[in-house]
Amino acid sequence: MHKGTSFQSFAIFTHQDCRNLKTPLLPMRINATFLRYLLVSTFFVITTISYRQPLYATHAMGADLTYGCLTNNQYLVILKFFRDCNGISPANSYPVYYGSAQCGVTGSITVNLTPPIPPFASNPQDITPLCPGQQSACGGNGQYGVQQWVYSGMLTLPPGCGNDWILGWSECCRNYAITTLDSPGDQSFYVEAHIDNTQPTCNTSPQFLNPPVPFSCVNQPVFYNHGVVDADGDQLVFSLTNCNQAPGSLVDYAGSFNGTTPLSTVSGVTIDPVTGDISFTPNQAQVGVICVLVEEYRNGIKIGEVVRDMQFTVINCNNNAPVSSGIDGGNVYETNICAGEPLCFDIVSTDANAPNTITTSWNAGISGGTFTPGPIANPTTSTFCWTPTAADVGTHFFTVTTQDNACPILGTNVFSYTIVVEPNPNPPVIASPDVSICLGESVPLNASISGPLPPGVSVISYTWSPAAGLNTTSGSSVVASPTVTTVYEVTAVYSDFCQSADQVQVTVDPLPQVNIYPNSNIVVCAGGSIQLNALTSPDVISYQWAPTTGVSNPTSANPTFTPTTTSTYTVTVTNVYGCTSEASVTLGVSLPPPDVCTNFYVTPTGTGGGLSPSDPTNLVSAITQAACNNATVKMAIGTYVIDNPLNIYSNMTLEGGFDPGNNWTKTSQAGATTIHRSALNTEGPVNQRRIVAMYGYQISFFRLQDITISTENAPTTAGSGASTYVFHCDGCSNYQIVRTQFLPGLASAGQNGVSTPGT
After folding, report:
1. 200 and 306 inside one domain
2. Residue 256 scores a pLDDT above 70
3. Residue 85, exposed/middle/buried by CB under 10 A (0-12, 13-18, 19+)?
4. Is 750 inside any structural domain?
5. Is residue 758 in some structural domain?
6. b/e map of 169-205 (b: 16 or more CB within 10 Å)?
7. Which of 52, 53, 278, 394 is the most exposed place for a label (fewest CB within 10 A)?
8. How far is CA 445 from CA 450, 468, 474, 482, in A?
9. Coil, strand, or helix at residue 687?
């Protein structure tokens, strides 16, 4: 609009013209000039209505209008509005106008206040750069205050029609405090975005990730980047441009100010056309407006553009904003790497004001990259790492915001980093195929190049990671012995410094579990037999006992053994993974029982031979000697704590109640003689653990008298639980149990014990 034109009369005139021309224009092809005319008319009608309000809306500090592709003709329109909290509050919704001359369409949609968008916890969000404890003008009594308001709405366009769509949004009015415009409070605020709706692949516009930094100090260098990213990987071109107050209508700049000279500075405001880096040093206190145009190109063809319009305030203060180093630790902020090449570098941020401390953050501009901020300190070191893939070939940017804690306004600078990913010209490295091993085994891993190398290029190193389970981390061949399933990565470094990586997974299959019971101090009576049981984990599918002599079924889990001499038997079990485990047991064979009964004397602390009351032995030794011998084991009163189960045999008696202090006289008092099984050395597979005090297998003609047999409570840490057994007797016959107490401890969580006939 031209300076001096009446808003109200111009709006009425153009609105009347649109109304009169509406019907005949429908079948006509609207050209770009007339499209601008229609948009101007619509915006000025809205502007006129705004001016009729008694309160002037001098709250607009900045805005950008962008869009994201939903389907081939549907877009999510996003409006970010930055409000000066010293002015009135924005509305909860706004109209956004759109039009295409090629398609002959104009219209509007409503964008509404959205739910909070991370990393912000609320919408609107106070983004004033303040010290902790300081208040802003946004809900407080501070001098300055800036809020970000985010709106969104759905836009549906005619499928495949128009490469000239324009989205526009306007708000009245700019701040009276602006010093680089004439009568700023009388000028509106307008931003727009362009859409090419004819692209085969629906386009998403560049997005501004960094909130604006609206404050700086006089004579202090300013470094800023809006943190623009493009989800489609299109080429972006940045430039300073004139700000607008309506479609096609520039703001009225004061004096010599314009879009490329928006502020009074020492040596101008510069913008890097590739990265969007903005730098300048203001030389006086002022309030100006800076507009950044971002043009988007795909395959050399322009397919869209967006603008951010932002008010910038320079105040008299003497704080130095912090600065951050480049990729090389100096002032180089761009690097080239090959696809597949890991990249890590430190970013050192410093502040010339020694008492200040620094915090750092990034805009997450590179997907898959990681940024680890340094501690709040001065200086502070942050770290960026990324390994690009072949799909990342192209130019990528991210920004780092460094901010100090100076009061009342924090010093802030934003630095951009450019990473150009080039195709790796070398054939990739190939690791061994994935492999499975059993726990405890080893496997060789190999790496090789998948094809011929370019002339003059060689592989200078192979590096494997992680180191756990490897005999070495370097070389084309290593030996892996992991204890858990592990993915190993080998990285080949070529002489041209490109890298290639591949992975191999070594799956570690579990070993089967196996225990034999009974499993200790087992004696088989002469001419007799015993059944042994292999307790295994559920994954076991086969059994093999060795030697096979005297074994009823060497491939059974519970064969019967008839040894003629003391023998050691080993069972080898195989699980579904092909892994094996072994367990062994020794079977002693006793002599035929004598015709005369023998007495063995035992005490809880006995260490002798046991054949006389004056030379008592221990319980385990006495039972072994008494097995199959028509013998009686006379137990002194007291408690016998055992950590492993006892085995009772045929033709023997176990009798308690004898008092060594009274010439081994007999008492039948309950509990006077107790065998107590501790919770140590639980038996069985993990999900079938148990504590057993006493075993008897296919035995006969034995007697238990005047004893108490008990167990400790089962531990809760025994796998999924454990059962408790006082006397586990299998195939027993012709026995006597007299005045004997069975006191099993409490079982822990798990499966109930199974009672079967004859046990």
Report:
1. yes
2. yes
3. buried
4. no
5. no
6. bbbbbbbeebbbbeebebbbbbbbbbbbbebeebbbb
7. 52
8. 16, 14, 11, 12
9. helix
Check whether residue 114 and residue 159 sit in a common domain: yes
- Residues 378, 309: one domain? no
0.70 surpassed by pTM: no
Angle at 343 between CA 339 and CA 345, to 5 degrees: 155
Query: Is the preceding omega at residue 173 within 30 degrees of 0, hence cis?
Result: yes
Measured CA to CA, the distance from residue 137 to residue 197 in angstroms comes to 42
Q: For residues 608 and 655, is the Cβ–Cβ distance under 8 A?
A: no
pLDDT in tens, 679-690: 998 887 767 788
- State the Cα–Cα distance between residues 657 and 664, nearest whole angstrom: 9
As given in the structure block, the two tokens for residue 121 are 């916890």
* Per-residue tokens: 420: 């150009």
Q: Say if residue 466 is in the same domain as residue 539.
A: no
CA atoms within 13 A on the CB side of 132: 4
Same domain? For 302 and 399 the reply is no
d(CA 414, CA 347): 12
Is residue 34 within 8 A of residue 101, CB to CB? The reply is: yes
Q: Are 503 and 518 found together in one domain?
A: no
Cis peptide before 119 (omega within 30 of 0): yes
Could you please report the per-residue DSSP string of 6-53? -HHHHHHHHHHHHHHHHHHHTTSPPPHHHHHHHHHHHHHHHHHHHHTS
Q: Would 751 be classed as within a structural domain?
A: no
Same-domain check for residues 150 and 197: yes
- Quick check: 538 and 545 in contact, CB under 8 A? no
Range of the domain at 297: 7-315
